[in-house]
Amino acid sequence: MKSSDSEPGTQSANLSLLPASLASLIVDHLPMGIMVVGSDDRVKIANPALHRLLGYASGALARIDLATLLDSNTSEASQVMPLEGEGLVRHADDHQVAVTFKSYQIQSKGVGEELWLVIVSSGDEGVLGAEAIFDLQKRILLDRIQHALLRADRNESAVTLLCVDIDRFGELSQVLGASGCDEIQHQVYDRISQTLRAEDTLARVGNGRFLVVLDNDAIPDKAHVVASRVQESFDPPFQLSKGRTLITASLGISISPRDGDTPDQLLASSYSAVQSARRRGPGQLAYHDRLLTRRMREQQKLEFELQNAILEPDRHFSVLYQPQIELDTGKCIGVEALIRWRHPGGDLMSPGGFLPQAQKMGLLPRLDRWVLMQVINQWKNWQSFGYGLEKLQVSVNVDQQSLDQGVMSALPLDRFLRDAAPDLNWLTLEIANYGLQGYVREHSHLFRRLTQLGVSLAVDGIGNDAVDVSIFALLPVSKAKVNGELVASLGQRASSQKLMLSLSRFMSSLEVDSVLVGIEDKEAERAARKLGIRFAQGNLFSPPLPPEDLESWICA
């Protein structure tokens, strides 16, 4: 077999690894003139054929104003671009040349400077067809994907391709004609570009098909958010010269490196994913990784169910209370209020199963407000019963979002609590360590107002994340909740015991009590006692209990 007869994809292997070089080679050898024009109506680049056609020396057309090239009728138009149809251009020796223009927008203002690819034909060299244009755009796009993959490899991140197919585009072509379809594709391009960041790339890669390259830490969750925004951009009707019409799009997502580690592999995976989406019906989304598709669908279902549950919290949620124990005496000195979701599937779901999703959806302030009111009402009941439960400290987890001004029924958190209960000396608010990182000074005034009301403050999650020690220096914190792997390994690892001892001494020097959470066995309890830890919480002592069972447990 001769090298010229080799199978597709095997010849010029060195160039296929450099899409930009191949694209440049194609442009340089095309018989018709090609130039890229910016929003300032200046030529960015022009190929050799255009220089020959207009009699300019190589490179002389770069940065030249279109008004210098065009006849007076065209250059005086209020909007030069896009150049379409027949016209006249000035030759370098000052005579005019009759040409035909064809323009393609290759980048809109939404993702950077507006750029146009302009084909200039004198009629002797033929016309560059749509397929050739798409092939040229694809080569440039592959080069961008290659650079994105190289950056992702250096940064240990991912690149995501989002393939967008206009549904029923063939039928639309028959009804609206070529001009109507061009209108739609221009509007689709503009709408998608408005949903993207400056570092993302958008290109039209075929009739009714667009491709988005998501760069810079494009993890599945973020890709799903962008895909949802793209789908939402299709919701408003498209205004055409022949009237308005509604359009949907199918979306396919591929993510490196699991779906491919080369531009061609990643592109093929996104095309395969969009075909899977189309088989499910119009307006659907699919990942090339079927397990990921299933996970995202389950996540969407969970979000829908959670949103409905939060609208009627009394029906769907309950609050349990887990005792906190003084290790030396075995006495219960407080309880932590823990939310549970009665999931439609019948299970009682613990916080880890739904709170991260509620946080992502911005629903935690609403849920925190409901929990606080449940706890306050329960404390009032205990106070009226006279069992002594009203003397216990009750800890309630509050998300960082709930610290923002006005999220609690349009009131600051301290005002909300003051209006809900006259006495708050029994209440401890727990804020996650990670939620306070970087917000210490921002919330310091709120925390001081809370302590003036009698509310105690605890930092939760010590042992799970890095600790910003300025939290304890700048905020009126009285407790530190230690949990995670550090507590789980306390009975088995000497290194964990040494770290816990140092941490406990550090907290004691700041007059902050350490509370170990997650004590599940006797070994961990013995290790905690040996280290001089005063307070602990875990299923070894008691699981989280409903209020009526807590009363029986306390009285036993």
From TrEMBL:
Xref: Gene3D superfamilies: 3.30.70.270, EAL domain (3.20.20.450), PAS domain (3.30.450.20)
CDD domains recorded: EAL, GGDEF
GGDEF domain ranges (all copies): 157-290
Coiled-coil ranges from the UniProt annotation: none
Regions that span the bilayer: none
Highest taxon of the lineage: Bacteria
Domain EAL: 299-556
One Pfam family cited in the UniProt record for this chain: GGDEF
Entry-linked InterPro entries: Biofilm_reg_signaling, EAL_dom, EAL_sf, GGDEF_dom, Nucleotide_cyclase, PAS-like_dom_sf, Rev_trsase/Diguanyl_cyclase
NCBIfam families per record: GGDEF (TIGR00254)
PANTHER family reported in the protein's UniProt record: BIOFILM ARCHITECTURE MAINTENANCE PROTEIN MBAA, DIGUANYLATE CYCLASE DGCP
Protein name, per record: GGDEF domain-containing protein
Organism listed in the record: Halomonas marinisediminis
